[in-house]
Amino acid sequence: MNNHRYSSFFNNPIGIFMLMSWMTLMPWFSTFTLTYLALQYEELIRSFTSLHWMYFFALSVFSMGLAITPTTFISLVCGYFLGYYAVIPVVVSYQLASLVGYVLAQKMDNQTIDWVEKKFPKAAPIFANVESRQWLTTFLARVSPALPFGLMNVVLSVSGVRFGPFFLGGLLGMLPRTLFFIWLGAQAPILVEAVQTNDYFGLFIVLSVAGIFGLFYILRPKP
Questions:
Q1: In 3-state terms, what secondary structure has residue 143?
Q2: If phi over 0 gives left and psi between -120 and 50 gives alpha, with beta otherwise, what is residue 157?
């Protein structure tokens, strides 16, 4: 059986570039679009019932899992409209979203690593380090807000990270910044301030640097 049938498009530079571009740029585009819509229909959103919010979170599972909406935006908006009641549904939603991305990446491609290692032999030790440090790798990849959620779903999945480290390590890594952004949204007097505020910039830098530097340190090929 040809297990490569799902992934031939993504096993070439153009396919990989398009996939990475989508998962990096689409969340930014959707943030601007959805912020505009939320501002236009703020009163309507405030009238949402519990059933409406259930639909919203169900939709957000797939929008986050397919790298359409960023988790940070969902946390901010839900914190603004729901306050601290948003914590549990947001956490559940992004965990389910991570599973959507993980499963789709598994089905889409099971030979990406082989292809990358053939094209870039020096990458092999990096993937070996990912396999041997799955919990820490997943945690650091999730801690950093600079690493797109959807992109990391794919990268961690095709890198061979097992389900347990992916799910629980991701939960622990995402939780601190999720709680912060929900709190930030809950404190904002108007929605546009919640989205555009610079109050989180310092934390964004700290978490991003810590996560990226940590990944570089543990995954770099040993001399």
A1: helix
A2: alpha
What the block records as the tokens of 66 is 């397919």
65 residue type, one letter: G
Instruction: Give the pTM.
Output: 0.76
Question: From CA 126, how far away is CA 199, in angstroms rounded?
Answer: 35
Write out the DSSP string of 25-90.
HHHHHHHHHHHHHHHHTHHHHHT--HHHHHHHHHHHHHHHHTTSS-HHHHHHHHHHHHGGGGHHHH
Residues contacting residue 3 through CB under 8 Å, at least 6 positions apart: 110, 111
Length of the chain: 223
Confidence of residue 196 (pLDDT cuts 50, 70, 90): low
If we measure between CA atoms, which residue out of 155, 158, 154, 163 comes closest to residue 135? 163
